[in-house]
Backbone:
């Protein structure tokens, strides 16, 4: 069923408000990039504990993704987004005020609950309100929000360090600069919470809860009277008549095994992490300083990298509903594989000085170009496409439950990558690390080729 785009401004504005959760996702996970040095000195931690300070939030993300996906079937998509907004605020205040590593970890875990929640709720909500023929473009707002959050926090970190000198110097009111980096999240989190009162609840959730009258009001507002009534009928027919959505729906009633589509969702979200791009966003400053850049220059390079990623997302908006999901993922796997092999080759052919700083020599410009190409292609393919597909590949009856499980695996994989990166860096070197990620990228392309089905222009009721 094709929908008129007469309500494009309304649907886009509603989607953008929901995608503010993705912006906070990027801001909250990216802010740590500029605070690594400050945290190590403030809490006097070892390499392992410092890594856990960064990765602890990702454990909260797994818990948040699971429970938000599951609870959204009971309390609604919008209600759970509001809970996430409150958690963002609590985490930002507490993390910035922390005076010990343990205290910091607790508040970052709370922030992880919020990030994990929006990671499944935003693509779910946008997919459930967007018309099928533009759903990919709307769904790209998830990744664009994430990368925009990275970009804004990198700019904020850069300006704060430029004003204060370093991230560990005292700044306003006697607080260290790295604390102000974290507190910068409070304003967008408050705006997100307030604007959520303006958006409607998902019509598919309302139908699942038997609130057909409210669902019809939302659908008419989105699509008009005739199409809204027709859509209400489609949604009602796609939902089980004997019970509300629940986790047990993920199993095939005849075989007792988990539906194949759930495992496919798990694999594509895990591959999205094993490609390794998040080490650029979480450890970018560390990497750039390792190859000889100053702290301020490293923070500036982060801004450039995030800007390139944002450009990839913007281009993606115009391609995803034309080319489809599978072609973009296959293209992404091929190009990313070669960028990672190139980076591995570069770092195999450079030397370190006595302080462990890598001397790139004439490879410096090439390295910057390849890293930016890596990030650009990821945000043109695996970054947004996976979120789009997760929002649309599951049937109405199982969407919330499936995303709960998939989200749990997503954040476990993210935690694994972030936690192991410093350890791998020490044991096999940066060339070895990029080789490992390149191997997983090759496998991801093979998986897409053999197991992933196209979802372009399909109605959610067709799954």
Residues:
């Amino acid at each position: 069923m094709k929908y008129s785009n007469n309500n494009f401004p309304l649907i886009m504005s509603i989607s953008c408000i929901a995608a503010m959760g993705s912006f906070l996702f990027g801001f909250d996970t990216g802010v740590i990039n500029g605070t690594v040095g400050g945290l190590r000195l403030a809490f006097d931690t070892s390499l392992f504990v410092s890594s856990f300070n960064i990765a602890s939030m990702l454990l909260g993300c797994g818990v948040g993704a699971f429970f938000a996906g599951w609870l959204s079937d009971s309390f609604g998509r919008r209600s759970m987004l509001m809970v996430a907004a409150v958690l963002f605020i609590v985490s930002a205040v507490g993390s910035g005020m922390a005076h010990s590593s343990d205290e910091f970890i607790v508040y970052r875990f709370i922030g992880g609950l919020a990030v994990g929640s929006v990671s499944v709720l935003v693509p779910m909500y946008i997919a459930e309100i967007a018309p099928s023929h533009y759903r990919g473009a709307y769904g790209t707002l998830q990744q664009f929000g994430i990368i925009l959050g990275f970009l804004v926090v990198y700019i904020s970190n850069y300006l704060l360090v430029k004003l204060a000198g370093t991230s560990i110097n005292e700044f306003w009111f006697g607080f260290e600069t790295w604390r102000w980096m974290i507190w910068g999240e409070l304003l967008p989190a408050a705006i997100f919470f307030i604007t959520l009162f303006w958006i409607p609840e998902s019509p598919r959730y309302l139908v699942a809860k038997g609130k057909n009258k409210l669902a019809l009001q939302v659908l008419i507002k989105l699509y008009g009277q005739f199409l809204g009534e027709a859509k209400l009928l489609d949604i009602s027919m796609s939902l089980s008549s004997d019970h509300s959505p629940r986790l047990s729906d993920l199993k095939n009633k005849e075989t007792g095994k988990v539906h194949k589509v759930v495992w496919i969702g798990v694999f594509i979200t895990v591959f999205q992490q094993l490609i390794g791009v998040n080490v650029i966003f979480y450890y970018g400053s560390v990497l750039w300083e390792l190859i000889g850049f100053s702290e301020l220059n490293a923070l500036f390079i982060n801004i450039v990298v995030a800007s390139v990623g944002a450009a990839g997302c913007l281009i993606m908006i115009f391609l995803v509903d034309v080319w489809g999901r599978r072609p973009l993922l296959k293209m992404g796997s091929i190009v990313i594989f070669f960028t990672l092999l190139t980076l591995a080759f570069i770092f195999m052919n450079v030397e370190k000085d006595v302080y462990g700083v890598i001397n790139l020599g004439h490879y410096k410009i090439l390295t910057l170009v390849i890293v930016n190409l890596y990030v650009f292609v990821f945000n043109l393919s695996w970054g947004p496409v996976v979120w789009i597909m997760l929002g649309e590949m599951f049937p109405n009856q199982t969407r919330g439950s499936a995303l709960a499980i998939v989200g749990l695996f997503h954040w476990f994989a993210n935690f694994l990558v972030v936690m192991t990166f410093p350890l791998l860096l020490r044991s096999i070197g940066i060339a070895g690390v990029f080789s490992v990620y390149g191997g997983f990228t090759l496998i991801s392309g093979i998986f897409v080729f053999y197991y992933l089905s196209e979802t372009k222009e399909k109605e959610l009721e067709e799954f």
In short: The domain at 8-462 is CATH 1.20.1250.20 (Growth Hormone; Chain: A;). The chain has one domain: 8-462.
